[in-house]
Amino acid sequence: MEMKPIRCKAAVCRAAGEPLQLEEVVVAPPKAHEARVKIICSTLCHSDLTFWRMQGVPGLFPIILGHEAIGVVESVGEGVTEVAAGDVVLPVCLAQCGDCPDCNFQRSNMCSGLPLRPLQTAMPRDGTTRFTDAAGEAVHHFLNVSSFSEYTVVDVAHLVKVDQAVPPQIACVLSCGITTGIGATWRAAEVHKGSSVAVFGLGAVGLAVAEGARFRGATKIIGVDLNPLKFEIGKKFGVTDFVNPNEIGDRSISEVIKEMTGGGADYCFECVGSSALVTQAFLSSRRGCGKTVILGLDGKGTPITIDPNELLAGRTILGTCIGGVKPKSDIPVLIDHYMNKEIHLDEFITHEIGFSEINKAFDLLIQGKSIRCTIWMDK
């Protein structure tokens, strides 16, 4: 049976920093290797904010943001066999095609068959859009997902099939930020039992790092943040100690953490996106074996300043995307840990709203009032 376009509501961003507009859009049928997905709910991530604010990028707007979501497959295109209509899926910005050398190499999660290109605003295989507005003009895709629409089209390499028994709002938070933090303690850093961990920035990703470190058996988890309220929040996710840079006088953060850990933390995670903070995180790690993992994105591209002699002292520094997690292989493992009550995810969801209130989710995140706000499409 021939598939037809679907008319539905979408929250369209037409200019940097302006409120999203609820509009009718037309969502084309899926082409080969694609699926059309009916979104159940989304959450708002700081990456959405970053692109929402982005100026001076030709051809970015109009765009449908949103990349943390869960939905149900409505239809599939030619050649799609791993999902079918009715399946519950997580759309994920990072692909796992299963065929390229990187997908077949255990230590890499950076699919080279369909590489992640953050500024690519179309479908990854043919470079065209599946969205048009009421005037017939193209509306751009975002991070291979575009979940702020009742329906979206996603390449099958970006879809993770999940058990229908999993609460949708819980699975949803695992499609990017929370998986990045928890995954970084597992896949990137391989945090060991009894270790010390320092987390720089207690936003959603930083709190997820703390939760992952707790699950991995770290005994000292130090949260570093300018907001003193974050310590009480962090305790829910395993934070044992807190450092507020505004309250340590003339001492550097690294000096304080070395004192707290007896020489430096075994693992440091930079979750803010500050090159200067990366340096402090690196200097806070233990000589001889300390690992520093960069999870934050410095939008200005500021170089990192590190004395090479410190590298020769046995410290390492590494960057990672989505915490080093392979989406199709590893997200189901995290879901199993949740279902077995081994990791805490409910606490990340601080607010729930309907789709018509989507701009409220932006306000809550900007004001620092939410960790994750569930945006239900049917409310």
Automatic annotation (TrEMBL):
<dbReference type="GO" id="GO:0046294">
    <property type="term" value="P:formaldehyde catabolic process"/>
</dbReference>
<keyword id="KW-0560">Oxidoreductase</keyword>
<dbReference type="InterPro" id="IPR013149">
    <property type="entry name" value="ADH-like_C"/>
</dbReference>
<feature type="domain" description="Alcohol dehydrogenase-like N-terminal">
    <location>
        <begin position="32"/>
        <end position="163"/>
    </location>
</feature>
<dbReference type="GO" id="GO:0008270">
    <property type="term" value="F:zinc ion binding"/>
</dbReference>
<feature type="domain" description="Alcohol dehydrogenase-like C-terminal">
    <location>
        <begin position="204"/>
        <end position="336"/>
    </location>
</feature>
<dbReference type="GO" id="GO:0005829">
    <property type="term" value="C:cytosol"/>
</dbReference>
<dbReference type="InterPro" id="IPR011032">
    <property type="entry name" value="GroES-like_sf"/>
</dbReference>
<dbReference type="Pfam" id="PF00107">
    <property type="entry name" value="ADH_zinc_N"/>
</dbReference>
<dbReference type="InterPro" id="IPR002328">
    <property type="entry name" value="ADH_Zn_CS"/>
</dbReference>
<keyword id="KW-0479">Metal-binding</keyword>
<keyword id="KW-0862">Zinc</keyword>
<comment type="similarity">
    <text>Belongs to the zinc-containing alcohol dehydrogenase family. Class-III subfamily.</text>
</comment>
<protein>
    <submittedName>
        <fullName>Alcohol dehydrogenase-like 7 isoform X1</fullName>
    </submittedName>
</protein>
<dbReference type="GO" id="GO:0051903">
    <property type="term" value="F:S-(hydroxymethyl)glutathione dehydrogenase [NAD(P)+] activity"/>
</dbReference>
<dbReference type="GO" id="GO:0004022">
    <property type="term" value="F:alcohol dehydrogenase (NAD+) activity"/>
</dbReference>
<dbReference type="InterPro" id="IPR013154">
    <property type="entry name" value="ADH-like_N"/>
</dbReference>
<keyword id="KW-0520">NAD</keyword>
<dbReference type="Pfam" id="PF08240">
    <property type="entry name" value="ADH_N"/>
</dbReference>
<dbReference type="InterPro" id="IPR036291">
    <property type="entry name" value="NAD(P)-bd_dom_sf"/>
</dbReference>
<comment type="subunit">
    <text>Homodimer.</text>
</comment>
